[in-house]
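SEQUENCE WITH STRUCTURE:
===
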Amino acid sequence: MYDPPPERPSESDCCGNGCAECVFDVYDRECAGWRHRLRTGGEGDRLRRDLLSATKHKPYRIVSTVALANDVRAYTFAATPTAVGRLPIAYTQHVHIRLADGLSRPYTPVALGDDDCSFDVLVKAYPGGRFTGRLSEMTVDDVVTVRGPFGGVRYDGYDSIVMFGGGTGVAAFAGLIGSVLDDDKCETLLRLHYSCKTLDGVLMRKELAGHAAYWNCAVHLYLTREQDWSQCSKSFWYNENITEGRISKDCIAKIIDKQHNLRTLWLICGNDEFNQYVLNSLVNYNIKQDNIQLLNNTTKDFEVS
């Protein structure tokens, strides 16, 4: 077990803007968790807590980069120098990836290496995007720095989890679904409602199809700009349910109705407009906000309108 005490941030790590959670607040929380693990004898795991920190950036190299769509690539990052073990990241948590010039963005790992201290993320390139533009210029073995993990979801006590994802937002759910299905004792119902422009734009389609083969998991696709609907006739191979158009308020109302009498956790991850729309719709249909979580939202605070 690798569990050194958390590293204290330097004064320069604090931006001085009065953040809701200062890096020194994170440090205090990490210290409390570390002391608890010492008292309880640890977890007996092989987690490399020395290679990832919520208070300090650690070096990671690019292992591979694969194009998944015109504007989306899958990146694999691994601790450097090479190490053995598993990184202390729970699915639905995110990490901050920082480039040499200081630009940083949060990403939710979709997969974790079982024994090589690596993780995979999906990166969407935006026209004129400073971060993604510079990342795309980097090659295998180039080094970035990583800080985290942060956030995460607890689903104990819920009968079902309903997930609304838009575009690369599916990254927040892929690992969670896999981890739930890997637990033979867990009977939580999983429902993914995933909005994409076209069928070719569906990310991790084969992985999602494998998940949908389980009795307690269903994948619903909403295609907003599909032109060749003949391709959708092949969707039965993927156990998919396909709807033309966006996830409308009527769709959300029907989804909520099917969750009647179930203790349901509602998760949302997409762009700001998508997140706000789904959040408003859920609350307007009397879903308690305590049962709703927006994942990896670092750009704005959302209010129900």
The longest helix spans residues 23-40. Residues 297-305 have pLDDT under 50 and may be disordered. DSSP finds six helices and 13 strands in the chain.
